[in-house]
Fold this sequence. Notes:
The chain is an alpha/beta fold. It has helices at residues 28-39, 66-69, 77-92, 109-116, 141-144, 150-159, 165-170, 183-195, 199-212, 217-231, 235-245; strands at residues 4-8, 13-18, 50-55, 98-102, 105-107, 119-122, 127-129, 163-164, 175-177. The protein has 11 helices and 9 strands. Strand 2, helix 1 and strand 3 form a beta-alpha-beta unit.
Amino acid sequence: MEFLRVRLAESGVAHVVMARGPANAVNDAMYRELADLFGDIDRIGGNVRAVVLSAEGRHFCAGNDLDEFRTMTPGNAAERMWRVRETFFAITDCPVPVIGAIHGAALGAGIALAASCDFVVATPDSRFGLPELTVGVMGGARHLARIAPQPLVRRMFFTGEPLSGAEFAAAGAAVTIVEADRLMAEATRLAERIAAFSPTAVRVAKRTLDRVETMELRQGYRHEQGATERMSGHPDAKEALAAFLEKRAPHYRPRDRDHHWYGL
């Protein structure tokens, strides 16, 4: 891949690093690479248990490549918009949890990439913003609503003014703020904690949480209970409980590839 650097640690944590200088602005080719990778995360290796998405350089992602926007018209926009949204959805639908590690700017497409992750760790001086109106486009608000309350989403969209990571969190956004020198260590620590659980259970949990996110309470909780019922027959569920009661480290099986467990 031209714009992504990928490394899989022994713990099962995959590090995906965006690398398109100077600001990781996303062009069509980079969207394709992200969609292909997150759409088939096991191409990295059979032991992927969690992903940390980060970036090289000064910024996480300063938005879309605006040179490509200059050639966009109602006639050719549909295909490009499809490519963009399928990339974000590939990250959201990744079968293992994805942690966004944000430094520098996360603007426009950058904030949508961050909000497509399961959760976000960011530096105090990172910058989150939706400058869409300043460049004559729409988009990003619905993704931002996954991690920020609606009044904050609307403020950011209608003003186009970015907020620092510290301001963003203080205004109600669901981001964890850590100092810059601890960003990758903290994102990796959280990913390794996830990776230490049953790899089968984590994938069942990821699929379950993705499905219940848009359900109302009663329907969603019934769906979660269905996952509990299904997993109660898996050896890892018994091992987790036994290890907890016996105050010892659990010993889980390799990821079960029987799709019976994921058919929720």
